[in-house]
Design goal:
Structural class: alpha+beta
Order of helices and strands: EEEHEEEHHHEHEHEEHHEEEEEEEEEE
Helix content: 10-25%
Number of helices: 8
Shape: globular
Strand content: 25-35%
Radius of gyration: 23 Å
Length: 358
């Protein structure tokens, strides 16, 4: 199924919830809508589903104009943060309901398969009210997957689950999506989730669609500073600088030997992802001395906040490390890992990267 939105907008009263935007998610693949709360992700998904009609613009399915066609007349599966299950049906009946409507055989086996993948196989004989919130959300996910709809809309479906289960389910869902034929739209506020799911990513901010493309491409080559900010966790480290002969002079820091386009001059913004900063020097690395303001451990990484002459920077170090508050340390980075944005906040230099396929 090919879904296409052409210059759709959404206005509610005097407020604009979605500015004009066009997107044609790749058929049979996962498209992640990435953006902070109130970026417009849910509003856009409601237009895709037919729950709302756009104020302006058109929605097409396989070339047919379905603008304004209600959701009950479309074959769409949806899962939102607020799980929805049939309270009078047991878990097995909830999951199997779309399979029975289609008249499929071996319903019980398919229900068991989906339940086991989502770690709810032991709850098949229970009613939704007997489950925790996270378990009920997994039932809703299983039912949506069972429906096998050509368009599946998932609006932050894992946000209410605990960290360990969320990590495991991301991997399971990636495999389930890859093995299916549905076009999957998955909304999240977490850049890491977009990277794990792969596929394609549409970055949204304040009702605008900023960039859409293969996830790795959008991450490694953000077209603007707004995209780079949205697709970084923790936020990208930013420094001010000025174009000089041979590169960029960081205000309060080193000169970065970078080749810039001839038409770029004057003030620029330099961006460094936290993973590009280290506490061990490499050959040719730039040095930024500073003092430790905070060190926090998250999973298997340590995030060190360091106050330097160019401002506070956050370094993401692999492994668990201990740093005393106020300790003097030096951060190192390679100029080749720097992003440069011009005065219009457009990307002009990005670190080199290789696409997986070549």
């Amino acid at each position: 199924m090919q879904l296409t939105l052409e210059r759709v907008t959404k206005k509610v009263g005097a407020q604009t919830w979605l500015y004009p935007q066009s997107i044609a998610p790749k058929s049979g693949a996962v498209t992640v809508l990435l953006g902070a709360t109130q970026a417009g992700k849910t509003s856009l998904m409601r237009l895709m589903a037919g729950l709302d009609a756009p104020t302006e613009g058109k929605v097409f399915v396989d070339g047919k104009d379905v603008t304004g066609v209600p959701v009950r007349e479309r074959n769409v599966a949806m899962v939102y943060q607020q799980f929805i299950n049939y309270p009078s049906l047991r878990v097995a009946e909830n999951i199997g309901s779309p399979l029975k409507l289609r008249g499929e055989k071996n319903v019980d086996a398919r229900v068991r398969e989906l339940a086991d993948k989502l770690h709810i196989g032991m709850f098949l004989d229970r009613y939704p009210a007997e489950l925790s919130g996270g378990q009920q959300q997994r039932v809703a996910l299983a039912r949506a997957l069972a429906k096998g709809a050509p368009l599946m809309l998932l609006d932050e479906p894992l946000v209410n689950l605990d960290y360990k289960l969320r990590e495991g389910l991301r991997e399971e869902l990636t495999q389930l999506f890859a093995s299916g034929d549905s076009t999957v739209i998955y909304a999240t506020t977490e850049p890491g989730e977009a990277l794990l799911l792969g596929g394609y990513t549409a970055v949204m901010d304040s009702g605008e669609l900023l960039q859409y493309g293969p996830t790795a491409e959008v991450f490694h080559a953000p077209q603007s500073l707004r995209v780079a900010r949205a697709f970084s966790d923790p936020p990208m480290n930013l420094m001010t600088g000025r174009v000089v002969t041979g590169g960029v002079q960081v205000e309060g820091g080193p000169m970065l030997p970078l080749a810039l386009p001839a038409n770029v001059e004057g003030a620029v913004t330099i961006g460094l992802r936290s993973s590009a900063l280290n506490v061990d020097a490499g050959t040719g690395d730039m040095a930024l001395p500073g003092k430790v303001e905070l060190a926090e451990i998250s999973g298997s990484d340590t995030f060190v906040h360091v106050e330097t002459l160019v401002g506070e920077l956050v370094a993401q170090l692999t492994g668990v490390h201990r740093f005393d508050l106020g300790a003097v340390i030096t951060l190192y980075f390679s100029a080749s890992q720097a992003y440069v944005f011009d005065s219009g906040e457009r990307l002009v230099v990005a670190p080199a990267w290789r696409h997986k396929g070549g």
